[in-house]
Design brief:
Layout lengths: L2 E5 L4 H13 L4 E6 L19 E5 L5 H11 L3 E4 L6 H6 L2 H24 L9 E7 L24 H20 L3 E6 L2 E2 L8 H11 L3 E4 L9 E2 H14 L5 E4 L7 H15 L12 E4 L14 H7 L7 H13 L2 H8 L2 H11 L3
Parallel strand pairs: 1-2, 1-4, 2-3, 4-5, 5-6, 6-10, 7-9, 8-11
Helix pairs in contact: 1-7, 2-4, 4-5, 6-8, 6-10, 8-10
Bound molecules: nicotinamide-adenine-dinucleotide (NAD) and 2'deoxy-thymidine-5'-diphospho-alpha-D-glucose.
Length: 357
């Protein structure tokens, strides 16, 4: 792991991963390839932008020739692939971009890697790795009481987002099986933490609550997700890169499964305590039940026995501590928040998704 290309490194998890990697791998070179869509921001990487081990390249993963040129230029031995369209609600309103980025983009990256690593034999094959970052949503939805998903659970994606991720997972697997491309894959549950774009539940609720805006809870708010602090996710990916078995997939989850409404109420209670502005206290009065997401998955739950027994990984953050840190992070980064709020794509999305709900 000398020259690591991180795709989507300007997004939420990608930027956290770059911070993590530069901290734990002193000799690594990181090449961040990101198209800077609405979800990507160089603000997320301001504090590493002068690090000589870090380079940023703006570009599209769908452009195979361009990606191939970068692999050669930087002699990339490791690709950690985060770049994607990642928001389920957007996939419901506009699925095409999800097919293009998540399926065609992954295909394009895989093909560039196959050419550079396997056909041109540019580097010893035992030294290269394609790590694909996927999601628990490929497994569908669980009823209450059903057992958690394992790595062997058949795929049953429900949203266009989940279907596009499932499709990309299959492509990765097929490149391993057919061409011998050395890959690892992780399927992870819901992340939260610093730098998350405020279209996702936790940062959306934090920022709306700070502003005294309504807190939209879809349906009855009893849907269940398996929340994981983003630093625990980054730690798990790093461990899989170091010790994971080539050709394997690993589930990652947070062992935290409160209902959405509980998450929202907890954020309200934290803000009641820590916010200097008391004008919206108690914040829970801002909660509003709104029209549900079409096809809304009811419950997710990841069985993480494989990664904990094979690689010794366990999440370190508790949900209570992680949520408190996250609320404090958003409160103490007003410039980051203002920069996002000024983006037309953010304002437009808030109107498109919430006005008629
Ligand atoms: P994000 O939306 O915050 O960031 C995505 C990044 O990809 C952005 O920086 C964007 O500019 C970039 N990008 C999009 N299209 C691109 C293209 N064509 N070429 C290059 N860059 C492009 O996403 P995230 O929440 O950080 O998720 C990262 C990955 O992790 C995704 O693959 C997602 O499916 C997966 N994942 C996310 C979660 C979660 O809870 N957020 C959980 C499990 C898995
Ligand atoms: O499970 C992993 C997935 O988690 C990732 O693969 C996705 O990239 C990521 O976006 C996330 O998907 P979700 O759809 O679970 O996350 P989101 O934050 O959009 O929603 C979390 C839950 O909160 C979900 O049940 C829908 C609900 N919700 C969401 C929003 C935005 C609301 O009730 N109100 C809202 O306004």
């Amino acid at each position: 792991m000398k020259n690591v290309m991180v795709t989507g490194g300007a997004g939420f998890i990608g930027s956290n991963f770059i911070h993590h990697l530069l901290k734990v791998e002193p000799d690594v070179q990181v090449i961040n390839l990101d198209a800077l869509t609405y979800a990507g921001s160089l603000e997320n990487l301001k504090d590493v932008s002068d690090d000589p081990r870090y380079s940023f390249v703006q570009g599209d993963i769908c452009d195979t020739d361009f990606v191939g040129g970068l692999l050669r230029k930087y002699q990339v031995d490791t690709i950690v692939h985060f770049a994607a369209e990642s928001h389920v609600d957007r996939s419901i309103l506009g699925p095409r971009q999800f097919v293009e980025t998540n399926i065609m983009g992954t295909f394009s990256l895989l093909d560039a890697a196959r050419t550079f690593w396997l056909q041109e034999k540019s580097l010893p094959v035992e030294n290269v790795r394609f790590h694909h970052v996927s999601t628990d949503e490929v497994f569908g939805s669980l009823a209450l009481g059903e057992p958690a998903w394992t790595e062997e659970t058949p795929y049953a994606p429900n949203s266009p987002y989940a279907a596009s991720k499932a499709s990309s997972d299959h492509l990765v697997r097929s490149y391993g099986h057919t061409y011998g491309l050395p890959f690892t894959m992780t399927n992870c549950s819901n992340n939260y933490g610093p730098y998350q774009f405020p279209e996702k539940l936790i940062p959306l609720i934090i920022l709306n609550a700070i502003d005294g805006k309504r807190l939209p809870v879809y349906g009855d708010g009893q849907q269940i997700r398996d929340w994981l602090h983003v630093e625990d996710h980054c730690d798990a990916i790093h461990l899989v890169l170091k010790k994971g078995i080539v050709g394997s997939t690993y589930n990652i989850g947070g062992e935290n499964q409160p209902a959405n409404l509980t998450i929202v109420e907890t954020i309200c209670e934290i803000l009641d305590e820590v916010s200097m502005d008391a004008s919206h206290t108690p914040h829970k009065n801002l909660i509003e039940f709104v029209k549900d997401r079409p096809g809304h998955d009811r419950r997710y739950d990841m069985d993480t026995h494989k990664i904990s027994s094979e690689l010794g990984w366990r999440p370190r953050h508790t949900l209570t501590g992680g949520l408190l840190d996250t609320v404090n992070w958003y409160l103490s980064h007003p410039e980051w928040v203002t920069a996002i709020r000024q983006k037309q794509e953010y304002k437009g999305w808030m109107d498109t998704n919430y006005k008629s709900r």
